[in-house]
Amino acid sequence: MSIKKYIKRGVKYVLTGEPINHITTHIVTLAPNELLKGRTALITGGTAGIGLAIAKKFLQSGADVVITGRTNERLASACEELKQVSATGKVYGICMDNRDVSAFSVYIDSISEKIRGNIDILVNNAGVLGGDIKNVTEEEYAGMVEKTKDYIFDGDYLLVSEDGANLLARSTPIAFSISGKNWVNNHAHVLKFDCYETRRFVEFYLNSIDLALYISGGAQPKLNQKNLNRIEIPLPSQERQKYIVDILDRFDAICNDLTSGLPAEIEARQKQYEYYRDRLLSFKELN
Q1: Global pTM value
Q2: How far apart are CA 251 and CA 236, in angstroms?
Q3: Are strands 40-43 and 121-123 parallel, antiparallel or unpaired?
């Protein structure tokens, strides 16, 4: 646009008080129960607890919900409770066992047929999984639902975190020892050592060094087995290991064990106080 046209528009605005171009806007405010209107949410494990609470929130926002559970009795009870939340939202219940990987495709087809449409929102409350739940593989599913009746390790082991923001933040230890019967999920490396001193030495060492060079991944930092094996640990003799571990164990007890460390520290400070008190208040007799 030329300078003359800018001047003409400016003069007209000054004289008439109106801009040449008029813009009309329409602002529509959606009611809280219309935010998800027309959408369908699938919540696995939605018969109780967090899953049921999430389903209620979706209904309150205008969505239809599909919940899954392993028993028809619990499904029926949960669906009746959900129907009291919204007069307009539709509620569907599907009896589904998340541990039955081979039936996933059948479950999803059954849900689509029942609601006569597609799932817009998936809340996989019964496990942790990214990607297409309908085409999940056994390997992917192994990280979603863990099955154990009692324990999988019995003995002394060192656990090292495999993933999570703490690998970089280091707000808590990334390596720690366990003893006895334990169950460990697939988010930790499990290391076995021949003696206590070596296990504790490696634990102290890993918790003291910067692991940034060995961490991969972006949003979810990961220390995979290949990179864990690349970490060089300067392992001294068995005698030296024991000497170092004994000292660090005592410091650890003082700092972290409230049943032994704190009372011992208080007792030591009390003796120190008594010593200096007696020295300060002792005077030589004057002849």
Answers
A1: 0.43
A2: 20
A3: parallel
